[in-house]
């Protein structure tokens, strides 16, 4: 089976806080967000055999043992994060990769915009996923979500993905990328109210992350403004900026 690969980061401490992760970027995304941070992954075709990708992630060393296992828990990775683009746009490939990660005893996380709730539920039901990082683009109103994503009818799918996560009780993190005036304070409060109504016990944190203009057309929101916005919300909030994460 082929995967349309966007790239691999062999070691990251950012994508899954507290973990040492390899990050696999998959091409393709149904959204057309105006300030997409990975716009080059929305399209394009870089086919790679999944077996080749797995051999790259888990190179064999003697007696069939991988380098990753030898250093597990010390200086090498303990997990894999699937990112994009939107990884679940390639749902069959994601399941195949997840199966390979699972048999090697590593944890699997996924960064998703929530557009494919059925595919997300398959991964969770098969017990392949250990963590979901759900990107919320705007307040839970159709007009706001259409403005933020560039397409219609995304919101019901995202809300269904959130329901799937909460129903299954899988650990998850909400990520909200903040640009000047988008989302507004009122929109952030609406997101907070939505989560408050759901009372998700498995929600580990909400992250407000600093959005950056792809073409330098505006100044990013300051860390001070991110902290001020975080104080409006009702949850364990972390701030992520170009300088790193703040509690």
TrEMBL record:
The record ties this protein, via Gene3D superfamilies, to: Aldolase class I
Q: Does the keyword Iron apply?
A: yes
Q: Could you say which cofactors this protein requires?
A: [4Fe-4S] cluster
Q: Which UniProt keywords apply?
A: 4Fe-4S, Iron, Iron-sulfur, Metal-binding, S-adenosyl-L-methionine
- InterPro entries attached to this UniProt entry: Aldolase_TIM, Elp3/MiaA/NifB-like_rSAM, NrdG2, Organic_radical-activating, rSAM, rSAM_sf
An MF annotation (GO) of this entry: 4 iron, 4 sulfur cluster binding
Q: Which residues form the Radical SAM core domain?
A: 15-240
UniProt-listed Pfam families: Radical_SAM
Q: Which domain of life is it from?
A: Archaea
Q: What is this protein called?
A: Anaerobic ribonucleoside-triphosphate reductase activating protein
The species is Methanothrix thermoacetophila (strain DSM 6194 / JCM 14653 / NBRC 101360 / PT)
């Amino acid at each position: 089976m082929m995967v349309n690969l966007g790239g691999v980061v062999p070691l990251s401490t950012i994508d899954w806080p507290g973990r040492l992760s390899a990050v696999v970027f998959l091409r393709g995304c149904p959204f057309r967000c105006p300030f997409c941070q990975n716009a080059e992954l929305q399209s394009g075709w870089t086919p790679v055999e999944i077996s080749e990708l797995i051999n790259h992630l888990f190179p064999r060393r003697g007696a069939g043992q991988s380098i990753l296992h030898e250093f597990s828990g010390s200086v090498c990775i303990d997990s894999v994060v699937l990112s994009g683009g939107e990884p679940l746009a390639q749902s069959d490939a994601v399941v195949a990769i997840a199966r390979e990660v699972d048999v090697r005893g590593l944890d699997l996380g996924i960064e998703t915009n929530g557009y494919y709730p059925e595919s997300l539920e398959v991964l969770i039901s098969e017990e392949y996923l250990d963590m979901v990082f759900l990107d919320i683009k705007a307040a839970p109103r159709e007009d706001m979500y259409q403005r933020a994503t560039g397409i219609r009818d995304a919101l019901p799918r995202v809300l269904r993905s959130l329901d799937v996560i909460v129903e299954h009780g899988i650990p998850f993190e909400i990520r909200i990328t903040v640009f000047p005036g988008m989302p507004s304070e009122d929109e952030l409060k609406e997101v907070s109210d939505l989560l408050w109504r759901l009372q998700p016990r498995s929600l580990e944190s909400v992250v407000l992350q600093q959005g950056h203009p792809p073409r330098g057309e505006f100044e990013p929101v300051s860390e001070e403004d991110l902290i001020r916005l975080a104080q409006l919300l009702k949850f364990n909030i972390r701030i992520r900026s170009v300088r790193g994460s703040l509690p």
